[in-house]
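Sample entry (216 residues):
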Amino acid sequence: MRTFNSSGILFDLDGVLVDSTRSVSRQYRLWAQKINLDPRTVEDIPHGVRSIDIVRKLAPQLDAEAEVKRIEQMEAEDQDGVVVMAGAAELLKSIPEGRWCIVTSGTRYLAASRLKHANLPTPQVMVSADDVSKGKPDPEPYLRAARLLGMTPSDCLVVEDAPAGILAAQGGGMRVIGIASTYPASALKADVVVQKLSQIRVRSREGSRGLTVNVE
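Predicted structure, serialized as tokens:
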């Protein structure tokens, strides 16, 4: 068992609290067809990065902001196969309000749609692609979240499923629990890697606002 003492926990959304991989892959293939791009070019897009960064790389000739709106509208309307990750609701309930947040590479609109569909609570702090100038793997999203929570980065614990997100958190000086839901455990260079959220147990420390996080 690994134990972390932390002021708060910062969660990625897709692949951590909500399983949306099939919807994302399906809608990127449809988007590629709409813009006359070979769908095979989107098969290996990195998970955990902003849509606008993907669009700029794959279709630099297009209006990236307009294309992102199109893609994320398609994703928000496609809830087929989108499910809450096992153990997510129970884990969030175990953390005091104001001691956790979501840091997602999706837009706020898409994140809100996913949380509503999964019947998960919306945290007091949520950092989305709309809120940063640089997305993961840059540390800006996680550093912004720590600042909004009123916590120092070194006191934050991050739960991530993608290499880009892990790099972002580590670049901000944070410790990371990787969950092997989207990528194999061997691809996740985190402090510890779990297969499921039920391996993470959180309790509040008496006499302080801190958290003790046990990872089986």
